[in-house]
Amino acid sequence: GHGYVGELAATLITQDVLQAKIVALAEAVAANHTGDTPPLLVCVLKGAVMFVTDFARALPIPSEMEFMAVSSYGSSTSSSGVVRILKDLDRDISGRRVIIVEDIIDSGLTLSWLHKNLQTRGPASIEIVALLRKPEAVKVEVDVAYVGFDIPTDFVVGYGLDFNERYRDLPFVGLLGEHMYA
Ligand code: PRP
Ligand code: MN
Ligand code: MG
User: What cofactor does this chain's UniProt record say it requires (predicted)?
Assistant: First the structure.
């Protein structure tokens, strides 16, 4: 959906460019999972919901899907470093090859925390696939196997990414107009 004319400053990543990158990421991940039991995709709600659905459908191998909801931002535009579990996984992940699917790495605090948390549950492996990363905002280094796009620190929305819960429904990634949050 797109009823946000006038609220966005620009398109950062178009729908076509996003979708092509997701196919490339899916092929790269699949190349490391040939002949395995299906990897378990852990979608980090809510931001990664669009990404995981397109990613799973682009994967040329079977996968299973789980959801975990964590939140680090609340309604602020900068990271608090506080991570809360809002919804935990429904299943045991011991012995499974887990792929954490995340929309964006900003400070890295969410993924760093989540990786440690899931590691304690005895998976066979954990890899991370992140669609976006803001290299200049990173406070904690996270070992990310697959990254879609490195982007500037501007406030980006769309394709799952929100500002006060809005804009997740955009099919592309845009720059939020400064007048919307200044
Ligand atoms: C956003 C985004 C990532 C995280 C990245 O989630 O979706 O999960 O922040 O920031 P970090 O690297 O600084 O931790 P948010 O906490 O806003 O929850 P949401 O996915 O429900 O929007
Ligand atoms: Mn998120
Ligand atoms: Mg958010």
Answer: Mg(2+)
> Does residue 139 have a cis bond before it (omega within 30 degrees)?
no
Q: How far is the CA of 10 from the centre of ligand 1 (A)?
A: 21
CATH number at residue 66: 3.40.50.2020
Q: Smallest Cα–Cα separation from 164: which of 49, 75, 50, 47? A: 75
Options 36, 88, 106, 162, the catalytic residue: 106
- 169 classed as catalytic: no
Position 3 in a domain: no
Q: In total, how many domains does the chain have?
A: 1
Write the pLDDT tens digit of every residue in 71-108: 775 555 555 667 889 999 999 999 999 999 999 999 99
Complex confidence, ipTM:
0.98
Range of the domain at 173: 8-180
